[in-house]
Amino acid sequence: MNFTFKIYSFFLAVVFLSGCVSLKKATLYDGEAPIEKVTIPKDISLLVEPRIYDEDATDVWGLEKDVCQEASVSDVAYSGKESLKLSWNRDAKGCKWSGIGIGWDNWAGKDLSLIMSSVGIQMYVRTQKGKAFGLPMVLTLIDYSGGMGFLYTTNKYFERVAIDEEWQKVVVPLSAFETEKENLDPSNIKQLQIEFQQSGSVYLDDISLVFYEEKPQTAWMEEEKLANPIALPKTIFDDAFANNNGWGLVKNNCKTVEWTNTEKASGEKSLHVKWNVGEDNCAYNVFGISWNKWHPVDVTSIRETAMLEFDLKTATASTSFIPLKVGFDDYAGAKGQTVLTTEFVEGGTYDTEWRKVRIPLSTISGNLDLKKIKQVYFTMEDKGEVFLDNLRLVSL
Q: How far apart (Å, rounded) are the C-alpha atoms in residues 150 and 213?
């Protein structure tokens, strides 16, 4: 063994014994694998059937007449021979839900996963009569496991400012659908559901999937930024309905709901409500107020910590019970209300002097969707006469 080899062996022994060796895992290739780019074909039909409704209503459900709606096939068409003729009133007595559904392509599962960012739903629409500045519909994609994705149609998707008696194109991008809340699986779509809100009467035709690329828009009207609807206290009405978004002010032989300046707890006015709904043909004995400009309100976070508070005065005598229900309804038509009993009124008696009424939200019963509250909703029963003022949402 030569001297050089002895020195080298000694050096290796010292290195290993001193623990100074560190081993590093090596790979033949340290670069990142390229992400495969998906190429979308120029023809949507190579991926999915694009025609949702076109002449054939075989896959359409909800074409019927009931208390909520009248939906049928019409010969007033944008193209071809047929369209869908739709009229509805969600506030009609007994109306719980209104809408139609289309399980296009013979109800086969549709895979939209590759095109959610590049395709929209296009439809042609016109009013049956007159002009409408909105299209109160909720488009809902539903998959075969029950997941859903929602989109509220707004006028930013219109060709023109308003819907009128001339056909116009409305295109809503799939990318704008809210898909996470209800866990939509876009790879297995069952149907397109169209839920009707408020009231309207339109024709729909040529509903289809089209390529969509959002274009920069110059807003003809700035989108309004709404105040937090559950930042308490929140006024629903005092001298007027919040944002003037109340309805049901009527005067007939069954009921009177009107503003008056003869009585008020504060301010200049109160709401005078007088009713005798035991008479014949006394229907639709309700009124309501939206405090968020008809946008849905999620009250889940305040259900246990907030209440409805208002001032009430009877017209003629003290009483322990008033046959007037108050609560909420949601955008599916469900209602949750409670009747005015002694537990809610200051002093335990409704009086000819103004008294505070406080109703915890937790006491409002009903199968409500608390994430989609539409309005505060009053129902008159039997007969009575009261004045209401300063309706608010406040903390307990």
A: 20
Residue 271, strand partner residues: 259, 388
Residue that the structure tokens 């409805």 belong to: 308
Q: ∠ CA 387-373-336 to the nearest 5 degrees? A: 65
CA distance 329 to 307: 16
Q: Give the residue carrying structure tokens 């007033």.
A: 76
pTM: 0.50
The whole-angstrom separation of Cα 163 and Cα 134 is 7
Q: Are 138 and 181 in contact (CB under 8 A)?
A: no
Host H or E run for residue 99? strand 99-102
Is residue 74 helix, strand or coil?
strand
User: Would you tell me how many other CB atoms lie within 10 Å of the CB of residue 308?
Assistant: 22
Question: Within 13 Å, how many C-alpha atoms sit on residue 285's CB side?
Answer: 23
Mean pLDDT of 366-372: 91
CA 346 centroid distance within chain: 35
C-alpha–C-alpha distance, residues 239 and 394, integer Å: 18
Are the beta carbons of 159 and 170 closer than 8 angstroms?
yes
Taking the C-alpha atoms of residue 203 and residue 129, their distance in angstroms, rounded to an integer, is 10
Query: What is the helix (H) or strand (E) element at residue 13, kind and residue range?
Result: helix 3-18
Do residues 306 and 361 touch, judged by C-beta distance below 8 A? yes
Are the C-beta atoms of residues 136 and 124 closer than 8 Å to each other?
no
- Going along the chain from its start, the domains and CATH numbers come out as 44-211 (2.60.120.430), 234-395 (2.60.120.430)
What is the C-alpha to C-alpha distance for residues 311 and 325, in angstroms, rounded to an integer?
15
Q: Please check the confidence at residue 236 and state whether its pLDDT lies above 80.
A: yes
Pairwise CA distance, residues 374 & 359, whole Å = 18
Q: Are 200 and 44 in contact (CB under 8 A)?
A: no
* pLDDT value for 382: 93
Tens of pLDDT along 42-98? 899 999 999 999 989 999 999 999 999 999 999 999 999 999 999 999 888 889 899
